[in-house]
Amino acid sequence: TGPRVVVVGGGFAGASFARALKREDRTIAVALVEPSEHYTACPMSNAVITGLRDIGAQHFGYGGLEDDGIVHVPQRVVRVDAARRRAVLADEVMLDYDRLVVAPGIDMRFDAIPGYDAAAAELLPHAWKAGEQTLLLRRQLEAMEDGGLVVISAPPNPFRCPPGPYERASLVAHFLKTRKPRSKLLILDAKDAFSKQRLFEQAWSELYPGLVEWVSLSFGGKVTEVDAPARTLTTEFGSHRAAVANVIPPQRAGAIATTIGVADQTGWCPIDPVTFESRLTPNVHVIGDAAIGGAMPKSAFTANAQAKACASALAGLLRGREPESPKLINTCYSLIAPDQAVSIAGVYQPANGLLAEVQGAGGTSPLDAPRSVREEEGANAQAWFETITQEAFG
Ligand code: FAD
Fold first, then answer.
1. Is residue 384 lining ligand 1, measured as CB closer than 6 Å?
2. How far is the CA of 154 from the CAs of 50, 150, 151, 265, in angstroms?
3. Which of 48, 58, 88, 160 for mutating ligand 1's site (highest number of atoms within 8 Å of CB)?
4. What is the pLDDT of residues 89-127, one digit of tens each?
5. Does this model's pTM top 0.90?
6. CA end-to-end span of the chain, whole Å?
7. Which ligand 1 atom is at minimum distance from the Cα of 299?
8. What is the pLDDT of residues 279-314, one digit of tens each?
């Protein structure tokens, strides 16, 4: 029998990894532990929130992985015995491994903003994990009276999908302009700058003039307290009462990372940038949003790229070969309107123990581009989603 690899989490990172490892070496036994029967993808979910897309278009099953010979175990990993190399599932079944790959994504820090806990998220959704939260925010926007104030609170770095809150703001602005034109959108930000900022600001002033207001950290953007039943968000500069509030709180690696000891005091998982092996626990690798990816942003594109690099390194390690230093690419598309997008790209490689950006290799969409360029990128965004989900789930 060949070596055994257990994967924790069947998102973009875990699913892409399992398939890539099987492609590298069919003799490796791969078990993917993921409690959900199907995955609900976050990319494009901002279009679901704003009524442009059906949630069904976000669902992907694990049949494609099973066709590849990967075993989907519909369970949750609750513990790991690292000395015995054994993962323990919620039903107490134990899976022995030669290498463990941990890809649990993120959890919200429900202790970070006073008043914003799991119960508050049922009133003021974060919608930062796709599924019920996505639909809750959609229903709230649908039900809101014209003239209401929508508030999005954006988190500090690092967090899942750096341009995501601003893509959401763009599509919410489009929804308000076309459906509730007397309403306003306020973005309260815990940062002074954000990804693709000039492109987004240009889009807001051209497409949604007078509708979107962005408040930076220095001007009172950081939410310091939430009163969920009253839909009131307090900042250092005063309070805002919202008709609909989308609170995207600070984040950390999925809880299992802390339970099994691969997350450090930051809440994220330090890794070797060549093999993605945990700096804290041997024979355990961490990929995707949970990992500290150096300069690499937390995105589905990144998760997929790290998965492929990790699979290549692991297949080698299991056969006693030295891994090669990888080069990884990330591109993030963001919709600024239903059929228009802007993008940012970067190239990353190991340097000084982290994944560092290769200077001059990346870039963003041009400012002041004609609508045809934005529409072309909108089509590219759709094509990218088809490609990445096909790669991850088959
Ligand atoms: P996830 O996709 O969250 O998968 C983690 C999986 O692990 C989950 O299925 C979970 O059930 C499972 N799990 C957790 N704990 C356990 C356990 N103990 N046992 C077993 N399984 C477990 N990225 C892009 O590249 N492009 C975009 O356009 C884009 N748009 C986005 C828009 C929004 C609104 C949001 C919120 C995100 C967006 N992203 C985008 C980011 C992208 O969704 C994430 O970066 C990506 O999902 C990370 O993949 P992951 O596999 O690390 O985590």
1. no
2. 18, 13, 10, 22
3. 160
4. 999 999 999 999 999 999 999 999 999 999 999 999 999
5. yes
6. 26
7. 45
8. 999 999 999 999 998 999 999 999 999 999 999 999
